[in-house]
Amino acid sequence: MRIAMIGGGYVGLVSGACFAAFGHEVAIVEADAARLAALRARRMPIYEPGLAELVAEHDARLRFTASLAEAVAGAEAVFIAVGTPTRRGDGHADLSYVFAAAEQVARALTAPTVIVTKSTVPVGTGRRIARIVAEARPDLAIEVASNPEFLREGNAIADFMHPDRVVVGCESARAREVLARVYAAVATPPLSAPVLFTRLETAELIKYAANAFLAMKVTFINEMADLAERVGADVGEIAHGIGLDARIGPRFLQAGPGFGGSCFPKDTLALVRIAQEAGAPTRLIETVVAVNDARKAANAARVIAAMGGDVRGKTIAVWGLTFKAETDDMRDSPAIPLVARLDGDGARLRVFDPQGMEQARPLLPGRIEWCDDALAAARGADALVVVTEWKQFRDISAAALLAAMAGRVVVDLRNLLDEAALLEAGFAVVGIGKG
Ligand code: UGA
User: Fold this and answer.
1) Burial class (CB in 10 A: 0-12, 13-18, 19+), 90
2) What pLDDT is stored for residue 88 in this prediction?
3) How much distance in Å is there from the Cα of 152 to the middle of ligand 1?
4) CATH code at 284?
5) Do residue 153 and residue 14 come from a single domain?
6) At a CB cut-off of 8 Å and minimum separation 6, what does 402 contact?
7) Which of 258, 293, 328 represents a domain boundary (last residue)?
8) What percent of the chain has pLDDT over 70?
9) Which residue from 214, 333, 387 has its CB within 8 A of the most atoms of ligand 1, so it is best to mutate?
10) pLDDT, tens digit, 9 for 90 and up, residues 319-334
11) Is the whole-model pTM more than 0.85?
């Protein structure tokens, strides 16, 4: 079937490429000329493992265009995957791009079609889109559906191709039939992923509820880590011990520097606002937001304490800048407040990230030194701070680190490195949640 995707950003690109892999003909609309040129030359504007290969493999069924009208012509489903940045001041998602896209699509359509939102949008947006579309094209039977995505950056293709579930909010048999065909490749054997059809509002809320729950789970284990440090317990063993309970489950129990990225921070905040306005405040998620903000602000203090309370004039190596591994995304990364504070307190910073350096440059202070690899960053450093859990950092031996560094302090905010080997080599190691 023919599908149009409005927006060649992260979600649009991954979803479009995966739909092509399902066997659909996909036209991706990208308004930014430079980004469009890159996509047409098959250069991926984002780092996502496997994406370039997937696009190359299904090239014949993928088209990139600036023309929305051309893309939607003959499409049975038009997906909207444009950005919804947090609006300045009030924490709400800015929906102007979504509404503008819906209206443009409606005006461009020549036959009945289903307009599907993939962007994460507040509860009630689908119904507002339905009104906008109906006003723009009273002559045409346009259905509206909500189909939230559950893709983790760095793992997005596997998440899309092997989903735990597909959620579709829609209220007509025709929309349901079209979306069932869109996802037939994963809904039928051997994958047989459950496809949940719900009301529009329910699908929209499932997305926020899923991210808020996961953010809460991460925040919970982070608080357990702080407690473990005080009482002489080990958070890794606590995570293992509770995760074996099938009701809890082992995933998203890795304590760390606090959650970041383009989703958890934005979506928890948006849910808090939505709930407040609906008169049903989510006190738990309000607390998750506050606890996580405080945690990200406190990472620098952990480093400063590990260095005896003063970092002025000290050289500190920082390994990893992105909000997690396997991405180049710097949005809301814990590295940002950490580096800013250490720099402000007079430390000399030497940083390295395998993918995020370009995105990080405009967000970090100008004085810091950008290094070519992890060992180069460690050279002559008094202390090393691990911020992102890139696997390659684990491969660097304690002996190599010993030879490179001037000092003997390692602050591992991800419990990534081999602590026993570092201790044996004479390092003082500060991990997370190790009492
Ligand atoms: C998240 C969700 O996992 C996806 O299902 C969802 O589709 C996506 O948001 C979205 O709304 O688009 P993502 O932001 O890519 O995906 O990253 P996660 O892997 O969920 O990690 C989020 C944050 O939590 C990161 O800062 C990560 O370091 C942190 N985290 C995660 C931990 O500190 N510990 C864990 O055990 C897991």
Assistant:
1) exposed
2) 67
3) 6
4) 1.10.1040.10
5) yes
6) 425, 426, 427
7) 293
8) 99
9) 214
10) 999 999 999 999 999 9
11) yes
